[in-house]
Design a protein that fits this description.
Strand order of the largest sheet: 9-10-7-3-2-1-11
Oligomer: single chain
Low-confidence stretches: none
Number of domains: 2
Length: 316
């Protein structure tokens, strides 16, 4: 074979390989370009998704803060008056060394025999190993007369001579509130019961509710009518009504709680099932703040004075 023929044959034989190499290289460039395009599209889509996710997270965070603010305003509205009395009770419990908790706005359902179920609400509940107290807080300003009418007529030198008391029967309890502007309000009035009757009824129903949850009688609950307004002054000072109920203003509150605590000790009452009652009250959605050794363990999400901070919102 001549040399030219050899070269011609070699060229003809290499052509398929050259064509194949060119096609492979072209395909490789095409694949690389497609890969780069897909990567760019992926990064663009990922960037859009991240941007959308960040926007959604921002919207969720804003919604969370808005809902939290609405919740705080709602709670402030619900505890517009109880917030102040709650703080007085916490401070009084700390002053006399109570180890337990103060619960606020305790609502519970009671089914009385032969009647419909009824929702009851307690302003405050003070519980420790040796205390189970129901507190009815009255944010009534001014001078407070909480007493009973004389059995036989009235003493003309006493407030019994006031015409506003003519509707009160002999020996019936009443509260006469003289406001700072000298306006008088008499309780009971209309559907509003006299405070001692009110707190004793609440206490009786709560004791029944606790017994159904604990499976045993929790024993006597002691009761307190607390005149909590900063200007409230109970004429004659703190006093008792019957065996289980006290009335006081903020000036004598610690002393009254101490008396109530000593009363329960003197009756040799069974220890209170503190932790069980905490679980029951917590499940009812009450605000709970621990006192004494439980101050850190049971903390309210609403700090001292929060109701004043949101007071303007609570009014709207």
């Amino acid at each position: 074979m001549s040399f030219p023929s050899f070269i011609a044959g070699l060229v003809v034989g290499l052509i398929p390989f050259l064509v194949a190499a060119w096609l492979w290289r072209r395909k490789a460039h095409q694949f690389r370009d497609e890969k780069a395009q897909l990567k760019a599209e992926h990064e663009e889509n990922l960037s859009e998704l991240n941007a959308q996710r960040n926007e959604d997270l921002s919207n969720l965070e804003e919604a969370h803060h808005r809902n939290l603010e609405e919740l705080r305003v709602l709670v402030a509205r619900g505890m517009k008056w109880e917030g102040g009395s709650r703080q007085h009770l916490i401070e009084a419990c700390e002053a006399i060394g109570v180890n337990g908790f103060v619960a606020t706005n305790v609502s519970f359902l009671v089914q009385n025999r032969g009647s419909d179920a009824y929702i009851h609400q307690i302003d405050h509940l003070i519980v420790s190993d040796h205390m189970l107290f129901v507190v009815e807080a009255k944010n009534w300003q001014g001078t407070i007369y909480h007493r009973e009418r004389y059995k036989n007529g009235y003493d003309p030198l006493s407030i019994d001579a006031l015409p506003v008391l003519n509707e009160i029967a002999p020996e019936e309890r009443y509260v006469l509130q003289v406001k700072d502007n000298h306006a008088m309000m008499l309780h009971p009035k209309g559907d509003t019961p006299e405070p001692v009757k009110q707190v004793e009824a609440q206490s009786k129903n709560f004791r029944k509710y606790l017994a159904s949850r604990l499976g045993t009688d929790p024993g006597h609950t002691l009761n307190c009518v607390f005149y909590s307004h900063r200007t409230s002054r109970l004429v004659g000072g703190a006093r008792t009504f019957g065996k289980y109920t006290w009335a006081t203003d903020k000036h004598e509150l610690p002393a009254v709680l101490e008396q109530m605590q000593q009363h329960r000790h003197s009756t040799h009452a069974h220890p209170v099932r503190l932790h069980d009652i905490y679980e029951i009250v917590w499940a009812l959605g009450a605000d709970i703040q621990g006192v004494g050794t439980y101050a850190e363990q049971w903390q309210s999400p609403f700090p001292e004075g929060f109701e004043k901070r949101y007071f303007k919102h609570a009014q709207s």
